[in-house]
Structure formats: structure tokens, C-alpha cells
Structure to design on (361 residues):
């Protein structure tokens, strides 16, 4: 690698680290406020806050890394264009290949990390975060029920209400529980309720002196039964029935299915890696600015291109997920347009350089 390439690569690494750090702090702040709200609502334990926060950051890295790479390259090369360092380097024999040689050694490790993230780490983090939030929420059912307030388990559709609480033993008085079971709506009304442990140390609702109303809403054939003691296990999230379960699978598992949602997930993950490579190369000609222009003059255009490209990929992948016949072709056209734009940008850069050489001669 030539000296100019090493010089550019060093500045790009510093710029990428700075952009990534700023975005990471913003993401951490946003996630912390969001998770803190869940803690206050009783959907998340304080002890699990740090773990879920870390898992959330891992999931955001899939977007953070490509954007940091793209913006970091543009910031460094735009500054060098503005300070006429690029012109001085080209006058000394440098070419576009030197800029590419400076970017590629940085981009390859980022692409490898991104591949590991989208293929294995991010699906694992998505599933683990969902499991932690669901299990924590389910294990805090009675502990978070406040007298006179409805407590809802959003992940499972349970609704729990208690009129009062015995401060001595924590027994809830006049309890109402609504849940769904095998397509039927089940309503439990009991005088008292406690959370206990069964022989396997699993948590279980124990309802005393109540009745069960079971039926299908809108139909008259419902049943009512009474009991002195009735045990109801808190709900467990069933990931096998989730419509978006494809996001929890690693890349090897995705290829073993033939469903449209899995196919869309494969193309979306592949598009993240491919788009990062294309945007990395596009950043070189896109960063060219006139010496009298601002060093951030290309930043707004770069952000617009990134957001537009990312959203078009997401939209076309959603078409594939729905089974639309034009979804795959649309995704291919989106990538083709950006690749052609990158090619045209390089050609214009080469032609502009040739015109400068002819004018100097």
C-alpha cells in the first residue's frame, strides 16, 4: 500500500470510529429510555435492564456499521477535496485506485463483521431479548399487579385485575383473569389468588373460591364452572407460532425452509452486506467537492441516498415476504440502479480528471 493510501485509511478509520461512537451513544440513550419505560410498566425486571440494553445495541449494529462506514469515507475524502489534498496527491501520481486501495482494507473487516452479525449474532440477540422480556414479564404477573389497576401481558394477551391486596401475605382479593385458550375466551373470577411454585418450581396461579366462564365471543354456547381451588399456569411465549419467526433463525436454518418469509429474510440479510459494499465504493466519487464548498456539503446527499436505498430494500423484501411475484425483480432493480449510479459516478470522475490533464497540457 502506498503512503497516500495509508494516510487516507488512517483518517477513515478515525472518522468511522467517531461516527459510530456518536450514533452508539444516541442509540444507547434511546434504548435506555424505552427500556426504562418497560421497567416502570412492569414488563421488564431491573436486573435484566443491562442485558437487554446490550442485546439491543447488538441488533442496531446491523444498521450502525454500514452507515458509519459510508459517512466516514465521505467525511474524510470531502475534507481532502476541500483542502486540495486530493489534487496535490493526484499531481504527485496518485489515482482513484489509491483511494480504493485505502478503502478496501477497511471495508473487508466491516463486511466480515456484518456477515457474522446478520447471519448468526443478530438472530441470536433478537431471540434472546424476546425470551428475556417475555419470561420476565410472565414471572412478574402477580408481583406487578396493583390493586385497582388492570395489568396486561401484551405478548400473550392475558389481563389481570385485583380489587385489593392483603399486605400481610400478599394475597390478592377479588381477582379477575382473562386469557385465551384453544381459540376460546376464558374468564376467571375468584375471591383470592396467590402465586406459588409447583413441584417443578414453576410459577403457577392458585385461585380460590371462584368460577370459570369459557366460550367464544359472539356465541351463546358458553360454560360456567365453580371451584374452591384452581391452578392456572402463566402463559409462555410460543416462538413457533410467531409470524416473524424468520428473524430468529441463523442463516443455515433459513435455507432449510421454503416459506416466502424465510426467502425474504435471506434476501434482506444478503442485501445489507451487498449494499454496504456498493455504498462503500460509491462514497469515493460521491465525496468529491469543490475547494470553495463546505466539507459537509455532500453529507445531506449521502444520508438521503442511504435512507432511500435502505427503505427501498426493506419495501421490496416485504413484497417478497407477501409472495408478490414482482418483489424479487424489484429488489434486483433497486440494487442494479445503485450499481449503475456508482459506475456512472466513477466514469464521470475519470472523465473530469482527463479533462484536467488535457487542460494542463
Amino acid at each position: 500500500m502506498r503512503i497516500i493510501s495509508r494516510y487516507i485509511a488512517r483518517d477513515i478509520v478515525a472518522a468511522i470510529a467517531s461516527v459510530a461512537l456518536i450514533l452508539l451513544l444516541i442509540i444507547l440513550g434511546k434504548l435506555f429510555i424505552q427500556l426504562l419505560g418497560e421497567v416502570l410498566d412492569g414488563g421488564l425486571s431491573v436486573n435484566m435492564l443491562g442485558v437487554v440494553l446490550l442485546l439491543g445495541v447488538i441488533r442496531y449494529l446491523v444498521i450502525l456499521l454500514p452507515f458509519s462506514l459510508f459517512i466516514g469515507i465521505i467525511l474524510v475524502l470531502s475534507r481532502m477535496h476541500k483542502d486540495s489534498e486530493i489534487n496535490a496527491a493526484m499531481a504527485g501520481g496518485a489515482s482513484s485506485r489509491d483511494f480504493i486501495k485505502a478503502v478496501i482494507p477497511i471495508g473487508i473487516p466491516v463486511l466480515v463483521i456484518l456477515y457474522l452479525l446478520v447471519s448468526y449474532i443478530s438472530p441470536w440477540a433478537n431471540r434472546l431479548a424476546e425470551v428475556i422480556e417475555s419470561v420476565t414479564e410472565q414471572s412478574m404477573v402477580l408481583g406487578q399487579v396493583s390493586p385497582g389497576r388492570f395489568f396486561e401481558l401484551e405478548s400473550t394477551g392475558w389481563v389481570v385485575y385485583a380489587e385489593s391486596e392483603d399486605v400481610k401475605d400478599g394475597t390478592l382479593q377479588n381477582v379477575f383473569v382473562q386469557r385465551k385458550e384453544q381459540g376460546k375466551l376464558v374468564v376467571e373470577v375468584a375471591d383470592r389468588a396467590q402465586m406459588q411454585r409447583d413441584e417443578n418450581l414453576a410459577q403457577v396461579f392458585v385461585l380460590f373460591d371462584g368460577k370459570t366462564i369459557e366460550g367464544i365471543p359472539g356465541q351463546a354456547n358458553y360454560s360456567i364452572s365453580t371451584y374452591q381451588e384452581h391452578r392456572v399456569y402463566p402463559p409462555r411465549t410460543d416462538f413457533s407460532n410467531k409470524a416473524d419467526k424468520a428473524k430468529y433463525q441463523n442463516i443455515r436454518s433459513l435455507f432449510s425452509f421454503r416459506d416466502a418469509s424465510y426467502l425474504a429474510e435471506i434476501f434482506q440479510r444478503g442485501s445489507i452486506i451487498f449494499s454496504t459494499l456498493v455504498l462503500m465504493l460509491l462514497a469515493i466519487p460521491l465525496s468529491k467537492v469543490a475547494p470553495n464548498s463546505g466539507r459537509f456539503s455532500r453529507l445531506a446527499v449521502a444520508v438521503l441516498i442511504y435512507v432511500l436505498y435502505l427503505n427501498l430494500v426493506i419495501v421490496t423484501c416485504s413484497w417478497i415476504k407477501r409472495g408478490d411475484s414482482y418483489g424479487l425483480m424489484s429488489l434486483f432493480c433497486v440494487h442494479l440502479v445503485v450499481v449503475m449510479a456508482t459506475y456512472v459516478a466513477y466514469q464521470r470522475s475519470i472523465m473530469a480528471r482527463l479533462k484536467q490533464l488535457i487542460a494542463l497540457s
